[in-house]
From TrEMBL:
One of its GO terms (cellular component) is mitochondrion. It holds the Pfam family tRNA-synt_2. It comes from Dispira parvispora. The lineage of its organism: Eukaryota, Fungi, Fungi incertae sedis, Zoopagomycota, Kickxellomycotina. This is Asparagine--tRNA ligase, mitochondrial. Its EC number is 6.1.1.22. One of its GO terms (biological process) is asparaginyl-tRNA aminoacylation. Keywords: Aminoacyl-tRNA synthetase, ATP-binding, Ligase, Nucleotide-binding, Protein biosynthesis. InterPro entries: Aa-tRNA-synt_II, aa-tRNA-synth_II, aa-tRNA-synth_II/BPL/LPL, Asn-tRNA-ligase, Asp/Asn-tRNA-synth_IIb, NA-bd_OB-fold, NA-bd_OB_tRNA. Residues 203-531 form the Aminoacyl-transfer RNA synthetases class-II family profile domain.
Length: 541
């Protein structure tokens, strides 16, 4: 048995490689039109924009030859989509609510396949056969006739012919009765909160976003790869790490390493993805990531999900920016099309639970992602904007704004929530605050210091959503970086080998998937975005 303990962080310097002087290589995204970007956030630029709808089908796409699957009971979603009024239907699910009248009863039944479920009508002939009505949380099976509903809340309902209780639910002890439950209370019952309407919708939204990401990358000829959770590289600059230790040897006081060297849970799949990109050209991975940071903010977790993409033969950080923007547009548009009821629910729910906070217009947030080009500015321009705000509003920020220091969350919030009022890419961060593997930009006289070909995407709500860079692909320059950051070249010999043998310009980015869902739903705490939250002092289940 292995157990994991946190170790202190090594120097946290996540950088993004700088821009090379090589000619730009066209992105895989279909470049369908060139247009002048409108003035956004005081910065205009002309970019070749990727069309979000013109991605072609993968070359190796084949017709669906899968055999039909015959499952015993169809989902409620399938019944509502494929059956006609008057058809005999058979569904199963959990009772969300029960309403009794004199001659009949109404049950709201949900099986997780749709947000609202379906109404079941128990007429008097069925009621006489029931000794007691099912209570909230009871699992049941219903056979009956699909009928038009005279009520205004739903168009169809099922009039039951047979009604079977599968699993009873004690109403006196069941925590999720039909009433409002605070999000803090639901956090205390992670094994039951998926049964609520809000978390059913949240889980379905996560599933849809995952599928649309896979769809986007498949259409751009990316290969999904599997990278390890355990790694011998203690910290790639992402923060504190968890060390993996053999539990029995630890109890016995033995110092022998199970893997014969220190091993840690991954803080990023980037270095492994770079290996694969030097063979497959375009790769991505979607994995859990671990950070042993004691932070207790609403934006941080010890375990979270991250999508990381790596692409060979790119020479400009704005090619990464174009790819990331097209990816997020595609996913958000698909969610708007296919999960409208869930998004409407979250708009109402957020308005209810955040009555004391500033109102959040989620629909405007979603539309900004789909309808408007993302704003773009350099780090230097961002600092100038922030400093101008401080001059006109003294004391606006807790942390000082200085060139050469990383942007704090309050700075990111101002840029995305107030100045741009939407997503904004910030590029060309100072090299000194970024990681060793990021490529430096050519020196420019107007810059106070050396910058890197790096990018962060800032969005309303969570702030930083995505970070990426060009990677240093030149052997001599990378060796100089290792020396500058006091890293042992022997430990990174495999990494420098990629520069010895057929090196190519390349780059990539990482997307905080949970923060993306947080931004979409407006849910304030990331602990309520992931099914089973892990953070300092908390690891239930």
């Amino acid at each position: 048995m292995l157990f994991i303990r946190p170790l202190p962080c090594f120097p946290s310097r996540l950088a993004r490689p700088g821009r090379t002087t090589l000619p730009r290589h066209p992105l895989l995204i279909t470049q369908s039109n060139v247009r002048q970007r409108p003035l956004l956030c005081g910065i205009s630029s002309t970019r070749t924009l990727a069309s979000d709808r013109t991605a072609t089908k993968p070359v190796n796409a084949t017709p669906d030859r899968s055999l039909p699957v015959s499952l015993p009971v169809p989902t409620i979603r399938r019944v509502l989509a494929s059956r006609q009024v008057g058809d005999s239907v058979d569904v199963s699910g959990w009772v969300r609510s029960v309403r009794r009248q004199k001659a009949r009863a109404f049950i709201e039944l949900c099986d997780g396949s749709s947000l609202e479920g379906i109404q079941i009508v128990l007429e008097s002939n069925i009621l006489t056969q029931c000794s007691t009505l099912p209570t909230t949380g009871t699992s049941v099976r219903v056979q009956g006739i699909l009928a038009r509903s005279p009520g205004g809340k739903q168009t169809t309902e099922i009039v039951a012919n047979e009604f079977t209780i599968i699993g009873e639910c004690d109403p006196d002890s069941y925590p999720l009765q039909k009433k409002y439950h605070s999000i803090e209370f639901l956090r205390s019952v992670p094994h039951l909160r998926p049964r609520t309407r809000t978390f059913t919708g949240l889980l379905r939204l996560r599933d849809g976003a995952t599928r649309y990401l896979d769809e986007f990358f498949a259409n751009q000829d990316f290969v999904r790869i599997h990278t390890p959770i355990l790694t011998s590289h203690d910290c790639e600059g992402g923060g504190e790490v968890f060390k993996v230790v053999n539990h029995s040897q630890h109890q016995a006081g033995e110092n022998k390493e199970f893997f014969q060297r220190p091993v840690f849970t991954t803080v990023s799949a980037q270095l492994h993805a770079e290996i694969m990109a030097h063979s497959l050209s375009r790769v991505y991975t979607f994995n859990p990531t671990f950070r042993a940071e004691p932070s207790m903010t609403y934006r941080h977790l010890a375990e979270f999900w991250m999508l990381e993409a790596e692409m060979a033969f790119i020479t400009d950080v704005h090619q990464l920016v174009d790819l990331a923007e097209s990816m997020l547009r595609h996913v958000t548009r698909q969610i708007l099309d296919d999960y409208a009821s869930e998004l409407v629910h979250f708009q109402r729910w957020v308005s209810k639970v955040s009555s004391n906070d500033a109102p959040v217009d989620l629909e405007q947030r979603w539309r900004t992602f789909v309808d408007q080009p993302f704003a773009r500015m350099t780090y230097t321009e961002a600092v100038e904007i922030l400093q101008q705000h401080v001059q006109s509003h003294p004391g606006a920020f807790t942390f000082p704004v200085e060139w050469g220091k990383d942007l704090q969350h309050e700075h990111e919030q101002f840029l995305a929530d107030h100045y741009c009022q939407g997503p904004v890419f910030v590029t060309d961060y100072p090299s000194g605050i970024k990681a060793f593997y990021m490529q430096d930009n050519p020196t420019q006289q107007e810059q106070p210091g050396t910058t890197s070909a790096s990018v962060d995407l800032l969005v309303p709500g969570p702030g930083e959503l995505l970070g990426g860079s060009l990677r240093e692909h030149r052997f001599d320059a990378l060796m100089a970086k290792l020396q500058k950051y006091h890293l042992d070249p022997k430990e990174y010999e495999w990494y420098t080998d990629l520069r010895r043998y057929g090196s190519v310009p390349h780059g990539g980015f990482g997307l905080g998937f949970d923060r993306y869902i947080q931004m979409l739903t407006g849910i304030k705490s990331i602990r309520d975005i992931i099914p089973f939250a892990r953070y300092s002092g908390h690891c239930h289940l």
